[in-house]
Amino acid sequence: MSRLKSVRRGFVRAAGVVVLGAFCATAMTGTAGAIVNGKNSTERYEFMASIPETVPSADNAKGVCGASLVHPRWVVTAAHCVDAEGTGAVPDGTVRIGSDRRTSGGTVRKIDRVVRHPGYRLAQPNRGDIALVRLDRPVGEEPIRIAHRAGKPGTPTRLLGFGTTVDDPDLTKWRFAERLQQLDTRRGTGSECAPGYADRTRLCTVSRKAGAMACMGDSGGPQVQRGKWGRWELIGVTSGPGDADNVCGNGPGLYTNVTEYADWIEKTIKSNR
After folding, report:
1. So where are the chain's domains?
2. Which one is catalytic: 80, 83, 239, 243?
3. Residue 185, CA atoms < 13 Å, CB-side half-sphere
4. Which of 129, 167, 218, 243 is catalytic?
5. Which one is catalytic: 50, 68, 219, 239?
6. Does a cis peptide bond (omega within 30 degrees of 0) precede residue 195?
7. Beta-carbon neighbour count of residue 1 at 10 Å?
8. 117 catalytic per annotation
9. What pTM value is reported for the model?
10. Using CA atoms, how far apart are residues 242 and 254, in angstroms rounded to an integer?
11. What is the pLDDT along the chain (273 residues), one digit of tens a residue?
12. What is 146-259's CATH superfamily?
């Protein structure tokens, strides 16, 4: 398999970097409608963050991953977004927090430290696909609370991301959104994803709109649900497709269940101050 085909294979039905079974991506940029068939964000999400990336082996193609601010100095993202050796995509060294624009606004901080979960494995689907990124300095934006538990199947959720809005196998046609996109979804049952994909640590997620789902460039971004007082709470990190289909909008998405890693997140932050 050629390097280009290998890179494309990693991108297909993925949302952030260059790995099979992930929503990673690097490609052309643009301002089309990210999350495929999503819509422009309707409110401010202070916790939303983005991590610009480069793939040296693909002519230094530019890409992006999402992330969520969970502490004034830490964001949570997908482990494959910060796995340069495994995916070929290299974070550019900064994180933008609190902006509804991919390349402007918000607060920009340098990456100070990266901690991938020890159980992380590249696969289809990925295992332990979660990582923490420490910023060089705290930010003033308000972190999102991690939910006590993900809602039961059928619970309304929302996805956020700057990924491609063009759902096409040809990576040269991808266009990353400049404006933050959102998509209303729901917790799916395990059987709504392919066998062996969803489990206690991986959430099957189904769009409430036909032909819509997170896609290349959305990896690491948040899946949120409404908490008791109506505030958004974090339940998922965009990890990859929920089946083996090539087209993002044709099937479910798979999300690392952040609530299952809450203790690891707390311990990691406390031990890396």
Report:
1. 146-259
2. 80
3. 37
4. 129
5. 219
6. no
7. 8
8. no
9. 0.88
10. 5
11. 333 333 333 333 334 443 334 555 443 333 223 477 788 999 999 999 999 999 898 888 888 999 999 999 999 999 999 999 999 999 999 999 999 999 999 999 999 999 999 999 999 899 999 999 999 999 999 999 999 999 999 999 999 999 887 777 666 777 788 899 999 999 999 999 999 999 999 999 999 998 899 998 999 999 999 998 899 999 999 999 999 887 888 889 999 999 999 999 999 999 998
12. Trypsin-like serine proteases (2.40.10.10)
Per the listing, tokens 């494309």 go with 8
| Cis status of the peptide bond prior to 125, with omega within 30 of 0 | yes
Active site residue 148: no
Residues 233, 257 contacting (CB under 8 angstroms): no
Rounded to 5 degrees, φ, ψ at 229 are -100, 20
Q: Count other Cβ atoms within 10 Å, centred on residue 189.
A: 13
* Look-up of token digits 């970097």: 17
- Taking alpha carbons only, the member of 256, 254, 214, 218 closest to residue 235 is 256
Tokens standing for residue 105? 């606004």
Q: Is 83 a catalytic residue?
A: no
C-alpha to C-alpha distance for 32 and 177, rounded to whole angstroms:
6
